[in-house]
Amino acid sequence: MELLSNWCSNGSLPESYVLPPEARPGNLIVPRGKSIPVIDLQGNDRNETILQILKAGKEFGFFQIINHGVSKDLMDETMKVAEEFHAMSGLDKERECLKDPNGSCKLYTSSYTYPREEFHLWRDALTHPCRPLDQHIQFWPENPTGYREVVGEYSVELWKLSCRILELLCEGLGLSINYFSNELSEAPKIMINHYPPCPEPSLTLGLRKHRDPNIITILHQGQINGLQVFKDGLWIAVQPLPHAFVVNIGYLLQIISNGKLKGAEHRVVTNSRDARTTVSFFVYPSDECLIGPAKALVNASNPAIYKPFKYADFVIASYVNPDNEALEDLIYKSTA
Hints:
With 336 residues, this protein is of the alpha+beta class. The protein contains eight helices and 14 strands. The strands form three sheets. Strands 1-2-10-7-12-5-4-3 form an eight-stranded mixed β-sheet. Strands 6-11-8-9 form a four-stranded antiparallel β-sheet, with no helix packed on it. A two-stranded antiparallel sheet has the order 13-14. The protein starts with 37 loop residues before the first strand and ends in a 5-residue tail after the last helix.
């Protein structure tokens, strides 16, 4: 496996990156006037903020947040070290990710399943766990200079922000405010994706249509377009806002909410001009955690749509094929 950023500037799109016609993004024209909601977390009325988040979570599964409490300087510094990491040579990047004998810090191209892929995706990715910080930070990259210090501070702030958002969602759904303060949020990770300029953006993707297999994601997407959300049969571009975060409902939260919230499908398109780097904070449960509809949301009028399953089994079924019957069989109750 050779990282995409090592060779992608040669001016042509290899055949292995050309997606089948039905999976291609096409001409990349998206409808004007459509956008995901933007929510001000410093709004005066907490109840109104909760209602806005619930509405966005039900209708779009996505929303942007402003006035979220994470400093602009920290966001800028985090994006800077993220871009600097992906600008290093392939050999240097690989060295920086080999510090943990258990392989917790991962660097790869396209996806985890690159060797088995029929078609590749136009991205490189770095990912590592970030909580508890003192157990993981020694295995993170030391270079570029300041990576551990900056991303460590960022991960602490994003953890606080994720807890705040989940508390607001719990209030809105009628769950205990600390419903997720346990193994449901035990294994957060940072992922830094890099999408180099692409010679044929209409033929390939940075990420294919998918739902995030987690609780929630908080994305720092910088200022370059690329993220698109699927709603009502259309792809909606998520326009970058300065120092905003994009929040999306994960598939697991859709299940826990018994379908009240939407784990929306989304994808990443490429462009021929600008490299795009993004920093994602994923809230994951522990592997052994049991996932299923919250009991408080299930009754005779609202029967459970999903059945309980172990998160590790969900991961295995997802990686085999995100659209396969094994995943459907694992999560959905029989209607027979």
